Amino acid sequence: MSSEIHNYIDSQTETRKERLLALRSWIVDTFPEIQEFMKQGMPTYQLGKNWISIAAQKDRISIYLCDSRHLQNVKKKFPNLISGKTCLNIRDRDRFPLKEIQTSIKAALKSKTSILNGRSVSTRSGDKIRSASTTALRQNTRRKK
């Protein structure tokens, strides 16, 4: 763990610190090849093109996933935890659904799909992205003569 991430976690209240450490420990144990760094002021974990970020807020922790599809199981059981499309907000006083969060994180980091301008695009390892949506995006960005 970098000193920057250590200081970030260490500066939190006890409840948030415990939750952040539990998530971080599980992530680095489950994905030993994961890249861990600070991005936009919060610990971020990246595996290939997939990522998650974890932030401590005023009275909660927020978990941001690279793709909203992986929040479906949490959304069904805990609809009040979802904020926006890809964010989970767990207040300090709320139950911490660790198992469901772990399932969502695992699905997000192992996903073979990346996001391009808000659209899901299937990828093959090592290949360039090729699909109808990227072709359409490419055509929309070309200069018109």
UniProtKB/TrEMBL annotation:
Region (Disordered): 119-145
Limits of the YdhG-like domain: 16-109
Ranges annotated as spanning the membrane: none
SUPFAM superfamilies registered for this protein in UniProt: YdhG-like
Annotated Pfam families: DUF1801 (PF08818)
Listed name of the protein: DUF1801 domain-containing protein
Organism: Leptospira ellisii
Origin organism lineage: Bacteria, Pseudomonadati, Spirochaetota, Spirochaetia, Leptospirales
